[in-house]
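Field guide to reading this record: the first block holds the primary sequence, the second block holds the structure written as discrete tokens, and the final block holds curator observations. Each block starts with its own label. This record concerns 2'-5' RNA ligase, catalogued under organism Aristaeella lactis.

BLOCK 1 — SEQUENCE
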Amino acid sequence: MAGKALYVLAGYDDRTEKTLAGMQEKLYKLGFSGVQTKNIPMHFTLGSYHTDQEEALKERLRRIADTQRAFDVSFNHVGLFRLPENDVLFIKPEAGREMLDLKDSFNDSLDTFSWSAHTTLLIDRPDVIREALSPVLGGFSPFEGKVSVLHLYEFWPARHILSVQLKTLEDDKL
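BLOCK 2 — STRUCTURE
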């Protein structure tokens, strides 16, 4: 998408964030840098929108956060896909009912590609991604995580607009 756009991102609880960010940090320490956006939370993207929808999206995220519970996800594999000039190395959260229900809240997205939940570790040339695969695969084992927050960002450059926490069991007890 050319120019600025708004993106809704599903983020993770602190433990999951630490695990995923640790995988990415390991790549950085090995000298991989990539062209992915840095200094934003680990996430999967739920949709993209025109910048004139900022206020409506902020309200939508707040409404969703009032009703949507945080939910568990399983991370079972490392994946790759190709972009026109680069490849993407990612960790894939399995799409369960809760995730698909959340995604349905953003079916009016401008995205022109098929949606696939993924948390990017590295975007770079295919030869660099092939080299980065070994340390990621060597240190990967399946793990459980939790989706607990929605973020609204404007890109490029990155501008954080809003983050809202999804409901927890403790919230229901209040």
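BLOCK 3 — OBSERVATIONS
The beta strands are 5-12, 43-49, 71-82, 87-93, 119-124, 143-155, 159-165.
The two ends are 42 Å apart (CA to CA).
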